[in-house]
Amino acid sequence: MSALPGSIEGALTTGLDDSPVLPAPADLPPLTEQTRLEAREIIARYPVPRSALLPMLHLVQSYQGYVSPEGVALCAEELGLTKAEVGAVATFYTMYKRRPTGRHIVSVCTNTLCSVLGGQRIMDALSADLGVHHDETAADGSITLEHAECLAACDYAPVVTVDYEFYDQQDVESARELVAALRRGEKPHPTRGAPLTDFRGVSRQLAGFNQYEDPRAAVDAPGNYEPTLIGLRLAEERGESAPAMTTGPEDQPADAGEPRDTVRPSGDTGETPGKEAADARVAAADTPAEKAGAAGSHPDAPEPSGRSLADSDDGTDTPAGSEPGTSGQGPQREA
Ligand code: FES
Fold this sequence. Notes:
By secondary structure, the chain is mostly helical. The chain folds into three domains: 8-90, no CATH class; 104-198 and 210-217, Glutaredoxin (3-Layer(aba) Sandwich), CATH 3.40.30.10; 241-296, no CATH class. It is 36% helix and 6% strand. The protein is built from twelve helices and five strands. It has a five-stranded mixed beta sheet with strand order 2-3-1-4-5. The radius of gyration is 28 Å and the shape is extended. It binds FE2/S2 (inorganic) cluster. The site of FE2/S2 (inorganic) cluster (FES) has 11 residues, from α6.
């Protein structure tokens, strides 16, 4: 996704003097003194000015819909950075756009879980409806379409976001209706979260300013948490619980939550309580997978192949050897 230094896309963003720069769109609103004042307000929030760069880039997008060469120059001037340094940051993150975006940005998760549940079909349908591919904007300027990597909402798959607000558990038809409504100028309420504005509005929010004319509008809608909680409910019904978070059976506190079928150590086998409990977990496992998992966490389980803890004792990357030269990295001994 990131443009390589010196590429045309990189040049578009950085606006370096010796790089080809496409003219800004004729209808691009200029950055004003107000933009500069707000940039300085952002800078004042941080102990080190350059830390303000990320929200400043969102601020530029809130005015111009993308990180324009003019925006790169403003950030560089205010922060005492070169345009190349600002461009390097702007081209690293996918949330910074290098071409003017549409009124809304529609992101379709096509990562594994969403994809197997229909995410790619949604992407293909929207692409056909809008006549665009990834990272392109419909001719009417309404929508920029992009495919997205995992949006961290796999329990609601397939997921679509509009201006980074979630529309959960979509299918081809619901996603097409959503996009059609957006093109009509409507703003369907996200499945959860705050009301939808537009790409420039959410960019303003990401810059640290309120995007709503009425701040009371920024109220999260009650969400449907069922997909997130279903695993917990099933576990409760089946009487299952997760093992305590410990570094090993020996560290497990006496009152820690016990996994299903765990048998309290009897203390009469001659083993440590940790080993006895681990034996019991292996014996109680129902399935081969559970048995393998229990065996793997047993204190007597062999070290996984690869580097052992002993290797780290000498503070170097040289594997331990009993004599000089045996590691293959020390001086070769005379035969
Ligand atoms: S795979 Fe789509 S949200 Fe995780």
